[in-house]
Amino acid sequence: MRWTHSTLNWPFAARLYRRMLYDGRSTEVVDIVLRFLMGVVIGILLVPVGVLMWFRIGHVPVAVADPPLPDERAFTSAPLHARIDRETANPPMQPDEANLVAGAHIYGDQCAVCHGYYGKPSAIARNMFPDAPALWEKHPNSDVVGVSDDPPGETYWKVSNGIRLSGMPSFKPILSETEMWQVSLLLANADKPLPPDALSILRGNAQGAPAPAVPASAAPSGLTGRQ
Ligand code: HEC
């Protein structure tokens, strides 16, 4: 059927399509457009099908020792840092002796198992993916110790919220805000001289100094946890 004036009441696109198709003048153009559109549709469908097949029969890295995906670290750390930048708070206390010693007690109780002590790396840190960084180790060719180059507010965010898809737990339900700030201030000062009582705990000396008396509002809640 040829295009005639009787088809004028068709919607514009249909008229154009029929005209190009049947006039015999622009068949190749229509062909190219149709093939292109089909390619787009098949391409869109192939992505999820390919991903599902990779999950079923591919060697997806799921074990700790499996190699990382390309740029995995960049993909996970960019959104984490964007979020922390938006939500970082300033410490409500000073890194004085009482807070640093209290922070060391909390560190020994809650963190050392994964992050290790001074000169005593954690046994499980390297067997996690991502691994738990040694927070009392000096960085090569720099004076930074652990996360002493991060603002305490950044460490507080990580301690409070944890880091998803990693072994880093959220301590919000376990420690009080005061305790989370104390341990964050301790880590921010890891490259500075620390009170001897704090050092003795951080060297893995379980006997350490007795826990300092803290106001009731800041009393450790770690032993009871969330009910
Ligand atoms: C069960 C193991 C585990 C425990 C317990 C744990 N962490 Fe972590 N932590 C990790 C892992 C694993 C990472 C690495 C996460 C990543 O790279 O995304 C991490 C990351 C961190 C980081 C970020 C390090 C960096 O280089 O940016 C800080 C700070 C931190 N933890 C502090 C603490 C503190 C403070 C405690 C105790 C209150 C604690 N962690 C307890 C496993 C743990």
General description of the model:
- The protein is mainly α and 227 residues long.
- The protein folds into two domains: 5-57, no CATH class; 77-218, Orthogonal Bundle (Cytochrome Bc1 Complex, Chain D, domain 2).
- 47% of the residues lie in helices and 0% in strands.
- It contains seven helices and no strands.
- It has helices at residues 12-22, 27-57, 72-87, 97-115, 152-161, 177-188, 196-202.
- The longest helix is centred in the first third of the chain and has 31 residues, at 27-57.
- Heme C binds at residues 110-111, 113-115, 128, 130, 132-133, 147, 155, 158-159, 163, 166-169, 171, 183, 187.
Order of helices and strands: HHHHHHH
Anisotropy-based shape: elongated
Q: Provide the CATH superfamily of the largest domain.
A: Cytochrome c-like domain
Give me the CATH fold name of the largest domain. Answer: Cytochrome Bc1 Complex, Chain D, domain 2
Give the oligomer, counting copies of the same chain as homo and different chains as hetero: single chain
Low-confidence runs of at least 5 consecutive residues: 211-227
Number-wise, the strands total: 0
Under CATH at level 1, the class of the largest domain stands as: Mainly Alpha
Mean pLDDT, nearest integer? 87
**Count of discrete domains:** 2
Distance between the termini: 78 Å
Question: What's the gyration radius in Å?
Answer: 30 Å
Which CATH-level-2 architecture of the largest domain? Orthogonal Bundle
* Major sheet attributes: none
Number of separate helices: 7
